[in-house]
């Protein structure tokens, strides 16, 4: 006698679990089949429905024995093994059903969307003949159950994207990933597996992987581009790195199989267009694909990894899931604690070694310098000086830079690890003074209690503020270029070792105007910083923070090196850089400085600047990489001001700095180390007020007509400064003029004499400007208020 009722397990008990319920079995239709269930897989979607509290009968990976069939059933007979449960019905006559894509039928019935009293976590399952599948004899029931969902999902996606000899990357070795490895291998592809743990390598290779890579290093260890990337893990990779021709071959395909657990899938559009990439989505395979998958699995021995347990209701399943989670957490904690112990031991060993080396060297140096023969030999003193500075600077660089790098490499495993303050190996001032040589060098990596530039800077000038923080002892470039340099330990690009004379520390003094002189000096300083193997992170970020969003350290250093190789007849501006007017640089004095005047201004004195666009659109002519549009949308506002508190507001390029100084009354001819000028000293009293009030929407104060005006340049009309979106739009878009009003170009006039006669140290002025400079790619630039600060610092005599 056929049963009339059976037990199902329904989600929605209010506690994130499920509970048994007794329901009536429906009368069988002519195409229906009653299956007595023997096995059922537990899918992640079952757990999701429990968490959502949906009142749905759980289970869709069922295997059982046919007990009863409808009057028109021809493909099954009583006693056959049948499987199914996810795809349950479709209309049978739409374009999707007629083309073998019935899984996308608008009238489909699938698990979770309908048939809510029918599931495979029960005694019986009622299914349509066309949506139940015969199980091959070569597949056991426990192995066939997970294939009803996971197997059909993976196989359908790979069948559409994988062919023999393709390189297929599998990201993640979980419920989907371990099946994807087997299917791709049996299809003749070369399988490359990416996982978070080295402990899974043996398992992956046993399943058919040819290569194995750790996810955090997979871009560095890749041997050749892959053709298909199948996402089976629980976290999306860095798409900017994935979608490059070095990792994913052109015309490659991305197959996200675990997308719902990640949320939105955001891919860089530029890479999609220029590399021809595809994204292939796939649900569980249609019924014809499902039957093919079962036959393929049985013939090639594809088997899921299963853990069998007797179904005793909710408590059994939840307890099994809880045990699995606990085991995974315990394994993660063990790996984390082991890594922390190893790193902590290495850090302690390095700390002890650094402390011992520093102490012994300082003691040895003190003993040596007490000898009279050494005091009378300047060459030995100089060598000891350089060695001491190198050792102490390296020790501090390691302390500031190496430890964060180690943390990054280990995925922040040491975030909660207490670390003692580093031991300061800088000798005290009395001991340093006993060395009989100045403990100061261009590296600028040791702290001082007095200003290393000039003792006079520590004295308070009448009617002036104290030294601003931008130029204190921790500033990176602390030596004026005319300061004697004891030894040339590095070489600027373009210089040569062939000459018997030592190479100059700087070539800036050879430029024919102040704008280019400052431009070259700042590029030389930036190149030295960018070329340091362990550049101090704070200084590096202050100078190159914006460029680091889309340039690597090597690219920054290479770009600066190429700029320094340019001759006096070539422009120092890098007009090939994608963004040409960041912070408004180059737009404030659009008509000043061009032509052949008596005192030319910066790069504007050249008859021609290579690659300079005829109209300022804010962008070069391109072509651009895939990240440029993203930087333009996320890092810049409509006026091309940087959206970052550390880089907000307006910036002047090297030409505008010279124009601004002339507006203040300071004209610097070529080759002059000191100049005399008449300036209005009251502008320095308003520097602090301007600094606190300036912002990205407040234009800088400009010099004009012999007075220091601080008018608001904003008009009542909305700004029309905008650039069209898209790569071609950025390349061809036009930059409207600055906001209407009494703009800086209208107020700039030939300077007249001011009230106070001052003498200015040009080298110190350049050095102070360099200390405030940021790299905008096309040009070095400073904020207007830093020009006044630098000018104030450079005054050495007042009348």
Automatic annotation (TrEMBL):
Q: Name one GO molecular function term.
A: DNA-binding transcription factor activity
Alphabetical keyword list: Coiled coil, Metal-binding, Oxidoreductase, Zinc
Is Nucleotide-binding included in the keywords of this UniProt record? no
One Pfam family name from the record? ADH_zinc_N
Superkingdom of source: Eukaryota
**BZIP domain location, by residue?**
320-335
Task: Show the ranges annotated as biased composition (Low complexity).
Answer: 724-734
Q: Where is the composition biased (Acidic residues)?
A: 708-717
Q: What is this protein called?
A: BZIP domain-containing protein
The species this protein was found in: Gibberella intermedia (Bulb rot disease fungus)
